C-alpha cells in the first residue's frame, strides 16, 4: 500500500515537484492525499493542480491567532488521513501543540547542514561565515525549531565565486534528492523517531547532527565533494 502523505508548502514547490516526479517514475510509493499552501497563488499550488492533486490554501492571515490557524490546519490535514506530513518549503513556524500532534510523522527539509544555520537566509549566512561545505538536511520536526533529529544530510562544496543564488541552486538539487529519500525510507517502514532519536532499520543514527562533514558524508551516498562515491 502506498503511504498516505500530506505536503505543506508556501511558495515555488520545487521540492513538491521532486516528490511528484519520483512518485510518477514509480520510485516513491506515496499517495499524495493533498497539498496545503500557506499562501494563495503560489507556483507550488499550480504544480499540484497540474498533477491533479487535491490542493487547498490555509492562509495564516485569515485567523486572529496562531492557535486558531493551527487548529484549522490540523483539522484539514487529519481529514486526509496522512501517515506522514511533509514540510516542503513551508515557511511558517509551527507551535508545540501542532508539532506534538504529529510527533514522529512530521518531517522538514532545511537548506543547511544542521545544526549550522537554523532559520532563514542560510546561503548568505554560509557564505559570510566562509564555510567550505554547505548543504541540506531532512529532519523530524520537534518543538525546537530546525533542531529536530536529523534523518539525512547532503553536503555541497562552496566554490570561491559562489553567490547565494548559485549556492542555493546546487543545494536545491540535493534537497530534491534527499527529501524523497527520507520519504521513501518512511514509506518502506524503515524510518522512525524513537525517544528523540532517528532509527533507520532499527539502528540509531548516532553520528547525526554533529555538524562536521566527515559524519555528514556518512549520512549521504556521496562524498563531501558531491561526487558519487
Ligand atoms: C527550499 O530551499 C527549502 O529548503 C526551504 O525553502 C525552499 C523551498 O523551495 N525551506 P521549494 O518551494 O520547494 O521550491
Descriptive account of the structure:
By secondary structure, this protein is an alpha/beta fold. It has a single domain, classed as Rossmann fold (3-Layer(aba) Sandwich), CATH 3.40.50. The longest helix is centred in the last third of the chain and has 24 residues. The two termini are 33 Å apart. The relative contact order is 0.14.
Which small-molecule species are bound to the chains here? 5-O-phosphono-beta-D-ribofuranosylamine
The structural domain count equals 1
CATH topology: the name is Rossmann fold
How many extended strands?
10
Measured by DSSP, the beta-strand proportion falls in: 15-25%
Uncertain stretches:
209-229
Overall body shape: globular
Put the structure in a nutshell:
The chain is an alpha/beta fold and 229 residues long. It has helices at 14-24, 43-50, 66-79, 96-101, 122-129, 164-187, 213-218; strands at 3-9, 30-37, 55-57, 84-87, 106-110, 133-140, 150-157, 191-194, 197-200, 203-204. 5-O-phosphono-beta-D-ribofuranosylamine binds next to helix 1, strand 5 and helix 6.
Secondary structure blueprint with pairings:
Elements: E1 3-9, H1 14-24, E2 30-37, H2 43-50, E3 55-57, H3 66-79, E4 84-87, H4 96-101, E5 106-110, H5 122-129, E6 133-140, E7 150-157, H6 164-187, E8 191-194, E9 197-200, E10 203-204, H7 213-218
Parallel strand pairs: 1-2, 1-4, 2-3, 4-5
Antiparallel strand pairs: 5-6, 6-7, 8-9, 9-10
Helix pairs in contact: 1-6
Bound molecules: 5-O-phosphono-beta-D-ribofuranosylamine.
5-O-phosphono-beta-D-ribofuranosylamine (GRF) binds at residues 9, 11-15, 44, 88-89, 109-111, 172, 175.
Amino acid at each position: 500500500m502506498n503511504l498516505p502523505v500530506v505536503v505543506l508548502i508556501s511558495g515555488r514547490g520545487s521540492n513538491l515537484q521532486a516528490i511528484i516526479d519520483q512518485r510518477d517514475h514509480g520510485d516513491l510509493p506515496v499517495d499524495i492525499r493533498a497539498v496545503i499552501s500557506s499562501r494563495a497563488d503560489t507556483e507550488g499550488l499550480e504544480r499540484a493542480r497540474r498533477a491533479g492533486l487535491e490542493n487547498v490554501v490555509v492562509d495564516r492571515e485569515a485567523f486572529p491567532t496562531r492557535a486558531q490557524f493551527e487548529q484549522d490546519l490540523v483539522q484539514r490535514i487529519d481529514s486526509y488521513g496522512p501517515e506522514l506530513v511533509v514540510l516542503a518549503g513551508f515557511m511558517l513556524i509551527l507551535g508545540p501543540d501542532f508539532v506534538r500532534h504529529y510527533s514522529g510523522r512530521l518531517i522538514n527539509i532545511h537548506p543547511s547542514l544542521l545544526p549550522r544555520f537554523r532559520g532563514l537566509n542560510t546561503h548568505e549566512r554560509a557564505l559570510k561565515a566562509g564555510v567550505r561545505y554547505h548543504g541540506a538536511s531532512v529532519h523530524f520536526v520537534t518543538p525546537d525549531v530546525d533542531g529536530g533529529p536529523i534523518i539525512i544530510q547532503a553536503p555541497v562544496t562552496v566554490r570561491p565565486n559562489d553567490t547565494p543564488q548559485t549556492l542555493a541552486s546546487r543545494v536545491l538539487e540535493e534537497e530534491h534528492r534527499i527529501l524523497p529519500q527520507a520519504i521513501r525510507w518512511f514509506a518502506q517502514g524503515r524510518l522512525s523517531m524513537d525517544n528523540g532519536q532517528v532509527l533507520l532499520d532499527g539502528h540509531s543514527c548516532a553520528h547525526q547532527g554533529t555538524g562536521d562533514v566527515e559524519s555528514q558524508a556518512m549520512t549521504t551516498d556521496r562524498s563531501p565533494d558531491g561526487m558519487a562515491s
